[in-house]
């Protein structure tokens, strides 16, 4: 889907714009003067002196050596948001890490945006925001298969939302997703392992996930208790009951720490 075309012959301007687009994961196609434009071209970035294309239903963004990057990015972002209904399918890949989550959003197999979040609630809110923003009938959230209490907590609140809004949620084998090379049309520079994994997860086939239950192992309970001690510099170790609530996705670790403190204050 070659939504954006770039027609610029000045090497300095061309290099600056391609770097800007790649750094923000905005897909584009380089064009040359006289070339027949692709049929799905919707936005042409060019200079006034080079614009010789007579195109119907194509928006044009004129730039020069003095055009600020922020202005260019704002115009492109506004354009993409105005075209969101053009997507037939939105796929969101999620890599649930222990301290951070990677999110990758694809529109009709083209990477639109990558996001890093740092807790379950922030991740959930971002996924809700994205699914409401992109108004298309087919939305799929693909989540990595690695077991963790963060993943369990996210699924416990995400599954009801997806069922209510008819959003398909799939589980994807995330083996080697954080170390595999990305396709050549996706720039991997300055991308975290979580984001790289999320991109791979979004591109892989998954299995529909309608319900989620798993056996909580004793080692995970101890790990959560150890994590509570680390977060409080050894001052607090949550109870086994609270750790189990976190492992089952009923509480966040922050909630468990607050409950522990309130219970101790009450006694």
Count of helix runs: 8
Strand sequence of the main sheet, in spatial order? 7-6-5-8-9-10
Mean pLDDT: 85
Largest sheet: 6 strands, mixed
According to CATH, what is the topology of the largest domain?
Nucleotidyltransferase, domain 5
CATH level-two architecture of the largest domain:
2-Layer Sandwich
Task: Tell me the CATH superfamily of the largest domain.
Answer: YqgF/RNase H-like domain
Descriptive report:
- The chain has 267 residues and is α/β, with parallel strands linked by helices.
- The protein has 3 domains: 4-82, Rossmann fold (3-Layer(aba) Sandwich); 88-208, Nucleotidyltransferase, domain 5; 218-266.
- It has 8 helices and 10 strands.
- The protein has helices spanning 11-23, 69-82, 120-133, 149-164, 193-203, 218-231, 240-247, 253-266; strands at 4-7, 29-30, 43-46, 59-62, 89-96, 101-107, 110-117, 138-144, 168-172, 207-208.
- Strand 5 (89-96) and strand 6 form a beta hairpin.
- The protein is elongated.
- The N and C termini lie far apart (62 Å).
- 29% of the residues are buried.
What layout of secondary structure does this protein have?
Layout: E1 4-7, H1 11-23, E2 29-30, E3 43-46, E4 59-62, H2 69-82, E5 89-96, E6 101-107, E7 110-117, H3 120-133, E8 138-144, H4 149-164, E9 168-172, H5 193-203, E10 207-208, H6 218-231, H7 240-247, H8 253-266
Parallel strand pairs: 1-2, 1-3, 3-4, 5-8, 8-9
Antiparallel strand pairs: 5-6, 6-7, 9-10
Helix pairs in contact: 3-4, 6-7, 7-8
């Amino acid at each position: 889907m070659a939504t954006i075309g770039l027609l610029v012959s000045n090497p300095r301007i061309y290099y600056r714009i391609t770097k800007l687009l790649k750094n923000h994961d905005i897909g584009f196609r380089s064009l040359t003067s006289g070339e027949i434009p692709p049929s799905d071209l919707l936005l042409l970035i060019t200079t006034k002196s080079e614009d010789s294309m007579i195109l119907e239903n194509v928006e044009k963004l004129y730039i020069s050596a003095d055009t600020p990057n922020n202005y260019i990015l704002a115009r492109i972002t506004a354009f993409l948001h105005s075209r969101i209904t053009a997507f037939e399918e939105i796929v969101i890949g999620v890599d649930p890490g222990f301290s951070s989550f990677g999110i990758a959003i694809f529109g009709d197999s083209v990477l639109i945006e990558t996001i890093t979040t740092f807790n379950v609630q922030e991740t959930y809110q971002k996924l809700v925001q994205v699914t409401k923003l992109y108004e298309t009938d087919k939305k799929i959230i693909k989540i990595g298969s690695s077991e963790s209490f963060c993943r369990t907590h996210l699924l416990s609140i995400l599954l009801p939302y997806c069922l209510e809004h008819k959003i398909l949620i799939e589980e994807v084998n995330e083996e080697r997703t954080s170390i595999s090379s990305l396709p050549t049309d996706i720039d991997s520079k300055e991308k975290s392992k979580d984001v790289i994994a999320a991109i791979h997860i979004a591109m892989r086939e998954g299995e529909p996930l309608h319900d989620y239950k798993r056996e909580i192992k004793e080692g995970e309970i101890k790990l959560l208790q150890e994590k509570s001690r680390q977060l409080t510099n050894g001052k607090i170790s949550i109870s086994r009951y609270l750790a189990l609530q976190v492992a089952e996705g009923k509480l966040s670790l922050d909630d468990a720490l607050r409950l522990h403190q309130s219970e101790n204050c009450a006694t």
